Amino acid sequence: MLKQVCKGCGEEKPMSEFYKSRKGDKSYPLKECKKCYGQKVKEWKALHPERVKEHRKAEVRREKKVLTPEEKWNRALRGFKF
Known about the structure:
The chain folds into two domains: 39 residues; 35 residues, no CATH class. Helix content is 48%, strand content 17%. It is built from three helices and four strands; from the N terminus they run E-E-E-E-H-H-H.
């Protein structure tokens, strides 16, 4: 079984303990194990509550397909020719 050393805790762990990156066509394991990565994300969220809030609002808007006033206006003008 393949193993990798975690950059966060320094322990050697199996590859199943690492998330894979989704950048580009190739996927490769991240440098931190799942536990260390989760802790890193938790710390970032604590430092940036406004960005987390904005992201959640955007997710809800996408799920409910709620349009902003600007999006409504753009849709209304779509058929008109000026």
